[in-house]
Amino acid sequence: MECSTPGSVAQCLNDVLARIDAARRKAGRPPGCVRLVAATKNVPPSRIEVAIEAGLSIVGENRVQEAMSKMAVLKDRPVRWHYIGQLQRRKVRSIMGLFELIHSVDSVELAEELDRRAIQPGAPQDVLLEVNVGGEATKAGFEPEGLLGAMPALAALPHIRIRGLMTVPPLSAEPEASRPHFRHLRRLAQAIAGLNLPRVSMQELSMGMSNDFEVAIEEGATMVRIGTAIFGARHA
Length: 236
Ligand SMILES: *Cc1c(COP(=O)(O)O)cnc(C)c1O
Hints:
Blueprint (H helix, E strand, L loop, with lengths): L8 H18 L8 E5 L5 H9 L4 E4 L2 H10 L6 E4 L8 H4 L5 E5 L2 H10 L7 E6 L13 H12 L4 E7 L12 H15 L6 E7 L6 H6 L4 E4 L1 H4 L5
Parallel strand pairs: 1-2, 1-8, 2-3, 3-4, 4-5, 5-6, 6-7
Bound molecules: pyridoxal-5'-phosphate.
Pyridoxal-5'-phosphate binds next to strand 8 and helix 9.
């Protein structure tokens, strides 16, 4: 379907939700176990608003400034904000308390900064650890080989709560090419869960985008991050 015209957002959203549910059923997983996070970078608030009215409940933003200006416009809307982009340490202070979940914690240093700047007293900041499963030199994220070793230091940070893992696999036109990477992420989460560390749960696997989310759901995704299939191609 053409998803780039203003009137198409609701229809494309419903199409994506139906595909998520079909993949979930096909995988034999229970209802409600896969949540949609709409990736809204470069999407103006007016179009996000249409999606919210059509039933979207979580938006994921990639840039701090862009997110904050959209939050101001959409402040009365019943939507939850996630942060899915690369986060610079010097921006951490300005975002504390704004995001229900940060998907993209990609280093111990960033985790430490989040812990240091957390609003106290208050609920800990929920985060996911981003893993560079493809081992790409240009991509952010923990190296899969090093993550288990880093877990005790991460678990020792009292003001963040690690809820699971996130990945962006190498770009490919072929959805099946992502499957081994998604599987790798799931196995890594199982290994981390086996460490039984405090404040660490591995309930969430944030994986799957427009071109490969059905494969991700088959491999255990609990959150899929989808932009293009809802809002059309980005004209950055
Ligand atoms: C843009 C983006 C997505 C969504 O990508 P699409 O291919 O448009 O669905 C998912 N995750 C992250 C981190 C992104 O930056």
